[in-house]
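Give me structure tokens for this 412-residue protein.
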Amino acid sequence: MHFDLSKKQQQLIATARELGQYNFAKRASHYDREAIFPTENYQDLRQAGFLKLCVPEEYGGLGADYQTYMLVAAEIGRWCGATALTFNMHTCATMYAGLMLDAYPLTEQQRADQHRRRLHHFGRIVEEGKLYSQPFSEGGEDWTQRPYATSARRVDGGWLLNGKKIFASLSGAADFHGITCTEIREDGMPPTFQDTVYLAVDQNSPGFEITGNWDPLGMRGTVSRTLIMKDVFVPDNEEVMPRGTYFDMRKLWPHGFITVNPAYMGIAEAAVDFTIKYLRGEIEGMPPVRRRHYPTKRMAVAQLQIMLEQTRALYHRVISDARPNPDKADIIRMYAGHYTVMENSNEICQLAIRTCGGQAMLKSLPLERMYRDSRCGALMLPFTAEICLDRIGYLSLYSMEEFENLPAPKAD
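Here you go.
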């Protein structure tokens, strides 16, 4: 699909490319090797105004829409996958509370209250350069099937939080963690999705702890450690969205839950870029040995290009489909696109390594890091590769009403 990009989109993508090419790429191996957060990259993103990329213009942001974010983030992922993946966690906080919530049927009073919330949270990002995260995984189960285990109890002036979040990207780096939790009901009834509360928690709050080691296979620069909350007090004004609306977004804006995709689309692009340069003898710091005259190399590059074009075409179609209340065909395509990017990114990296040969296994070259980073995509909730396949099957064989009313699977 060809995008007729606006001048603003072209400028934003060009800025991301410049930052990536001249800054992010040369730092990526260090962040990966040491498993440390890409702090310097975020200083660059902050200076370029990208922390406010999806903050609406009326609140001082750049006002980028969903499609623009997905294109910019993919360009960032081309140069540093961990930076693109963590950038998603920050940007989603602004999209959910901003452009996506605008499509929600709020009452006049709720809109007035949300305006005050936006002034508060967006103001921190725009005026102070604050960094938000959005951890939601709690371990053990698909969190889209039942309310969050992390609880929020109403107290005077705010909430008391208890629970944990695992794989919490930006742990230690974010100023505020957007914690999704379930309000404890006073009537004693079991909680529902409508009891979901979304609160911004200062990481310096008493009772808030970051724990565990971080030494994973890939995406090491995300530093996604575990957050523990024990009677953490959160003031009322730290509510990010109206009660119950966050979880409703999975139906209203399902494409909002595949925003990790750009990091892996970018890695796929980068792997093909590197392979072509390597075979042409154009890698900086290496002898200019050309390998393009081998028929086997040309065949492999052709396979890479075909797989990349297929992946890119579906990715672009999916992000152009994104809108409130998409139809069933769009949702099936969304899952198919998400699955395709996650799986093909790793397949492309595998083939790129085989095509370049033994040198590609060395940590002095980026392909082995891209391979490890790309392997992580299919494992990421809420939509792992297996969940995508399951839902495509369900939606193909059941009506939307039947699908929405299916009972949640029970753990053994």
